[in-house]
Specification:
By secondary structure, the chain is mainly α. 40% of the residues lie in helices and 6% in strands. Strands 1-4 form a two-stranded antiparallel ribbon. Strands 2-3 form a two-stranded antiparallel sheet. Strand 5 and strand 6 form a beta hairpin.
Length: 289
Amino acid sequence: MAVALVALLAGAGLLGVALSGALSSTGSTAAAETPPPAAPAVVVVTPTPAPAPAQQPAPVAQAPAPARTERTADERRFTANDLQHVPASWVSGFYDIYAAAQRAYGVNWLLIASVHKQETAFSTHPTTYHGLNFAGCCAGPMQFNVTNGGGGSGSTWARYRTAGTRAARPAAYPHKTEKHPSVYDDYDAIMAAAALLRDSGAGRTLDASAWRAAYDYYGHDLTGVSYANEVLARAIGWGQRSFCINCSTDQGLLSSVDAAWGTPVRAEMTPPAPKSKTTKSEAVAASKG
């Protein structure tokens, strides 16, 4: 295989951190402590540097050609979301949803939670529960596109909006809307994200397939590569250590993830250098040599 993967973590090892409190739909804190969901049996693989380009696998089928586009506004938003300090009591309100999404769709909850942090800092971004984002396309806790495909039934949100019907809706969670499904409802949005990640190839292991699913989730350009790198490095770090809401992403892991999975995709966006033209005199000299 193009990317050699070495299993690092066997067994559920994410109960070392118990985060207190669970929020009701009105935002009040419950007295009981709620631990994070249990991790799957094997959750993490070690990304290793990619081999020479000739040995790299072909791009995933049906994936559109990547573009050398950087979206600076999104880059700033992701950085801000990563640095945002979020109370443990608030995040604990999502644990039942993460667990339900993992059971229903077989996607590692650490990947789902990492996308949640990347997109809206665990639903704390000011525009999470109303309107559209700065680009006028996406909305809600997981920033689903509600305008693509002509909007309406053609949008990404429309295709995944009923994903929550595969599990029981928790009695209380941070933002429970009156009507369902709603792109602004945390349960509806997180379950839809799990279904979308599953359909893009994500499973219980944080590996190349999980990276590709995160890349597909954002879009195929340079910012999408950076997005997938950040999401996977954060999730792998949580898997190796413990779920840490406000910890910075390990830069060593980020570099490893980029070398293993980001660099080959980024290389697809770089056209080969043009061959230098051989002059007539050089060609004659070469023929005589």
